[in-house]
UniProtKB/TrEMBL annotation:
<keyword id="KW-0067">ATP-binding</keyword>
<dbReference type="InterPro" id="IPR036890">
    <property type="entry name" value="HATPase_C_sf"/>
</dbReference>
<dbReference type="InterPro" id="IPR011712">
    <property type="entry name" value="Sig_transdc_His_kin_sub3_dim/P"/>
</dbReference>
<keyword id="KW-0547">Nucleotide-binding</keyword>
<keyword id="KW-0808">Transferase</keyword>
<feature type="domain" description="Histidine kinase/HSP90-like ATPase">
    <location>
        <begin position="280"/>
        <end position="372"/>
    </location>
</feature>
<keyword id="KW-0418">Kinase</keyword>
<keyword id="KW-0597">Phosphoprotein</keyword>
<feature type="domain" description="Signal transduction histidine kinase subgroup 3 dimerisation and phosphoacceptor">
    <location>
        <begin position="175"/>
        <end position="235"/>
    </location>
</feature>
<dbReference type="InterPro" id="IPR003594">
    <property type="entry name" value="HATPase_dom"/>
</dbReference>
<dbReference type="GO" id="GO:0016301">
    <property type="term" value="F:kinase activity"/>
</dbReference>
<keyword id="KW-0902">Two-component regulatory system</keyword>
<protein>
    <recommendedName>
        <fullName>histidine kinase</fullName>
        <ecNumber>2.7.13.3</ecNumber>
    </recommendedName>
</protein>
<dbReference type="Pfam" id="PF07730">
    <property type="entry name" value="HisKA_3"/>
</dbReference>
<dbReference type="InterPro" id="IPR050482">
    <property type="entry name" value="Sensor_HK_TwoCompSys"/>
</dbReference>
<dbReference type="Pfam" id="PF02518">
    <property type="entry name" value="HATPase_c"/>
</dbReference>
Length: 392
């Protein structure tokens, strides 16, 4: 754009000067104007063909200098005739900007020699040549050096900022891993105690109800320890979940019983055994948390749970209609508000996608899709990019 603007400006100025010169025109004025307009027309090509435009400028300058020296009448009529094209400063500036400095200055020197000219030098021609070549070259060189310096400083600042962010993220990740390890140790220790005491109670008690309750506590504790072990393994190593072929009862819980307890309609399509145990347990947790939210925020509303296993993943959708009874504020404020956020992190950690929000009809929908096998590294990049809307 700058080259086009300069070419247009030079052409207008030269045409105006030629038309207003009147009787002061020399015999070669028209040829001089044509050569200058030719050089002006080549300026828009200087970015793509800088050497070609530079060579054309040399040719035009040489022709003007030879024409001035071979026209004695014109020389007599004009003291120190101008032999440098008007566009020469712009050409030199672009060459210094686009070419290596030694090539650009070689073009400037070649352009200056015919403009003096060396066979009949004069102070006027010398001033004209230097002001048309040397000064624009030095100015463009200064601007180029300044631009490169500012760009290098900006890149250095961006690199330092990226390094600071990377170090902060590494420190945050290390601290989270340490806290997760501490939490795992604490929970594992206390849950193990609960499992041992429940197992002891199951063996020693003679009350059938107490024995059944102790067995349920023992199974829940054992399942919790298994989930903790699997999740910590994924977090620590980024390993893929175990392949399918798990025991049929290793699902994290009974989905049918879970749905029946909340009077939800359950629809299951496909074979649950096509996904590993850690994915099956994540499906159970998504359904469990979604039903809990529906019970708290949409009392009396019908709930539909749809789970499908296409073979390479597990898809879950839990949808509840608008509430039919007033919401109990004591019940809605009892939670921590981290349930859906925790589900999002858990599903994302396993390589899946998660979304939760209003369905546009007053209800609420939770969807999750978990691959049967995915690496942790492929999915963590977008873990914090989604917004989870907690129902009011």
């Amino acid at each position: 754009m700058a080259a086009i603007g300069a070419a247009t400006l030079f052409a207008i100025v030269q045409i105006v000067l030629y038309t207003t010169s009147g009787d002061n025109r020399g015999p070669g004025s028209l040829a001089e104007l044509a050569l200058n307009l030719l050089l002006n027309a080549s300026l828009p090509l200087v970015v793509r063909l800088p050497r070609t435009v530079g060579g054309l400028a040399v040719v035009v300058t040489t022709v003007l200098a030879l024409g001035a020296s071979l026209a004695p009448d014109a020389v007599a009529a004009r003291i120190d005739p101008i032999t440098t094209p008007v566009a020469t400063p712009a050409v030199v500036s672009f060459l210094v900007t686009l070419l290596p400095w030694h090539q650009a200055f070689a073009f400037a020197a070649v352009l200056a020699l015919p403009a003096i000219p060396i066979w009949s030098p004069s102070w006027g021609n010398l001033y004209e040549a230097l002001s048309s070549t040397a000064l624009p070259a030095l100015g463009a060189l200064y601007l180029r050096a300044r631009y490169e310096l500012v760009r290098s400083l900006r890149k250095r600042a961006e690199l330092a900022d990226s390094e600071r962010r990377l170090l902060a993220e590494r420190a945050e990740t290390a601290e989270r891993q340490r806290l997760a390890a501490d939490l795992h140790d604490i929970v594992t220790h206390h849950v193990t105690e609960i499992v041992l005491h429940a197992d002891a109670l199951r063996v020693t008690t003679r009350d059938d109800d107490a024995r059944a309750a102790a067995e349920q506590i023992r199974r829940a504790g054992t399942r919790t320890l298994t989930e903790l072990r699997d999740l910590m393994h994924v977090v620590a190593t980024g390993a893929r979940p175990a392949p399918a072929g798990r025991p049929q009862n290793d699902t994290g819980g009974d989905l049918a019983a879970l749905a029946a307890a909340d009077h939800a309609a359950l629809h299951v399509a496909g074979d649950p055994d096509t996904v590993p145990a850690v994915v099956a347990r994540a499906v159970y947790r998504v359904v469990q948390e979604s039903l809990t939210n529906a019970r708290k925020h949409a009392p009396g509303a019908p709930v539909t749970v749809a789970i499908s296993y296409p073979g390479d993943r597990a898809d879950v959708e839990v949808r509840n209609a608008p509430p039919r009874r007033s919401v109990d504020p004591t019940l809605t404020s009892a939670g921590s508000g981290m349930g859906l956020i925790g589900l999002d992190r858990r599903v994302t950690l396993l390589g899946g996608t998660f979304s939760a929000g209003d369905d546009g009809e007053g209800g609420f929908t939770v969807t999750a899709s978990l691959p049967a096998s995915a690496t942790r590294g492929e999915t963590l990049a977008g873990a914090n990019d989604r917004v989870i809307r907690i129902p009011a």
